[in-house]
TrEMBL record:
Alphabetical keyword list: FAD, Flavoprotein, NADP, Oxidoreductase
Keyword hit for Glycoprotein: no
Pathway: One-carbon metabolism; tetrahydrofolate interconversion
Residues of the full protein shown: 3 to 338 of 664
Protein name as it appears in the record: MTHFR SAM-binding regulatory domain-containing protein
Amino acid sequence: EKVTDKIKALPKDATYFSLEFFPPKTPAGLQNLHARLDRMAKGLRPLFVNVTWGAGGSTATKSLELASLCQSLGLTTVLHLTCTNMSKSVLDDALENAKLMGIRNILALRGDEPRHHEYLDATEQVRNGGGDNEFVYAVDLVKYIRKQYGDYFAIGVAAYPEGYAESAYPVAQDTSRDLPYLREKTAAGADFIMTQFFYDVEAYISFEKVLRTDESGVFKDIPIIPGLMPVQSYQIFKRTTKLCSVKVPDGVSTRIESVKADDEMVKEHGIRILTEMIDKIRNSTETGGGLPRGFHFYTLNLEKAVAFIVERCSLIPEIPTSNEVAVEDEEDEGPG
Ligand code: FAD
């Protein structure tokens, strides 16, 4: 099922959430995740789940395996795909396999910056022998999927509420520099937008407001789903925020630092911080675009923190009553 159809089917004032998982390296890891996914599917009932893709196609087989597992658990799946530093045949195989598995959703990403061993910009690199790969930016992948598959896939793209950060080439993050490109890839055929995680909720709200009121109009009616990273531990929090150049506002930093020696307290403060962020976004009158409000969780394959957060924020949808299920079943059988 397309996530966009599922979002459209919700009441306008509804909230929903999605969960992101990465493919475990070992069969034992996958088995553990299988059990966790099953529990989360039944207990938390996300509207959809995302399966990440290792840059350069490094996890191609494992990502497809995990995506297939998610589908088999009845979870609507978004498969991430990157397009640079990767042979086109890997990309074509992934799209074809996704289709065979009944996956209707792709998050189209660029992936890591192509290696700049010659210090050329990315376009130059391709002109100077990028092999069979015509992809330089995510927009190229969006166009390619549309060209090859028409409307079969709902396509998502990434956005950065604090500005895109390139770890290899640190330049000041600047949302206004990214905006024309976000417009371009959205206009090229994106159906939804998912963001980098953040802790600066004001920055997120003003980012979404800029998009919603953008004169191009391309962001007016598109689901924009803020990315949230639950705090799993002090070390992970420090590492991920640094790695992704995500700002930690003073208020958040003080609270986490004050309990950094106590793992349980770090988690508890993290849950409260995320809960407050969700409430602020949900209550903001400047965002949402009149659409159901979604939240995306980077789970790092962990269950507890996100379970507490969606529970405390009342994001878990009710199970349809047995009556409603019966009616749906009847309808599914169709005439005769
Ligand atoms: P793009 O949209 O191509 O943008 C990259 C940069 O280039 C930006 O600075 C943009 O402003 C600029 N740019 C775009 N078009 C042009 C142009 N025409 N001319 C000049 N500059 C341009 N990575 C993975 O490897 N696997 C994953 O599963 C994964 N999942 C992610 C999920 C989310 C929600 C997010 C936010 C990121 C994810 N990433 C993942 C990381 C992502 O691949 C990297 O951040 C990557 O470096 C950029 O990808 P993009 O799709 O945003 O790139």
